[in-house]
Amino acid sequence: MTSPARRLPPMSALRAFEAAARHGSFKQAAAELAVTPTAVSHRIRALEDYLGLRLFDRQVRQVSLTPAGLQLYPVLQQGFDMFDVAIRRLVAPAGRERVTISATNAFVAKWLVPRVASFRAEHPDIDLQLHASDAVVDLASHAFDVAIRYGKGPYPGSRSEVLFADAYIPVINPMLPVRSHADMAASPLIHFDWQKASPDNPTWTRWHAEAGIEWRATQAELRYSDESHAIQAAVAGQGIALLSQALVADEIAAGRLMQPFGPEVSGYTYHLVTRAKSHPGAAVTAVMDWLRHQVPMAR
Question: What is residue 99's three-state secondary structure?
Answer without folding.
Answer: strand
